[in-house]
Amino acid sequence: MATRAGYVTRLNPVECTLKAQAAIVAEPSVVGMATDSLVLVRKLKTNTFHTVVRVKLKPEAEGTSFTLSTGMDRVVLVFGCIFLGAFLAISAAFLLAYLRIFQSFQFSDEDRRNWLFLSLPLICAVLGVALAQLGRYQSRDEAPFLTRLLVDALDAKTTGKQVGPIEVKSRRRQGSAAARSGAIAEESGGYDITMEGGHDIDVV
Asked: Helix 115-138 vs helix 74-99: angle between axes, to the nearest 10 degrees?
């Protein structure tokens, strides 16, 4: 599954392109391309379902903002969707022929008893999905590696808002202090202490 994140850097798009190209050349295990609007990077030695990092650059007043997305190669994704759709269509056609809905497209009684033949398209579709999942599992470490490579090269910072632990702790202290003051007020309002004659204390 593809992931997407936003970043900002003080570099302009031309500098980002040069930095990205330098990082790609300096790292022997990756290959890619870089322009003033798009950067593509992937690892060299990997499987068919490898991860590709796409960076779309956008110039800003004080630098460049860019969207970094990681996911399967789009060519492989399109081919996989066509492959899956074709076998699912064949499975649906086999089901219609098995049920004998159309007079001109039916399986014979002998073919209807051959379950391996009838389930073969569906088995191929399931195996294709399983193979893609296995390839993506083997490529699970590529997205963090490529993301760190480009983020470090562009000296970028994420645009996501994060709540620091100090702010959370301060809110908890305020709530606990208000609760303690309310409890003290209730306790003090429930008792009436009077002193008579300097020695006797009556609690009502």
From this structure: 160
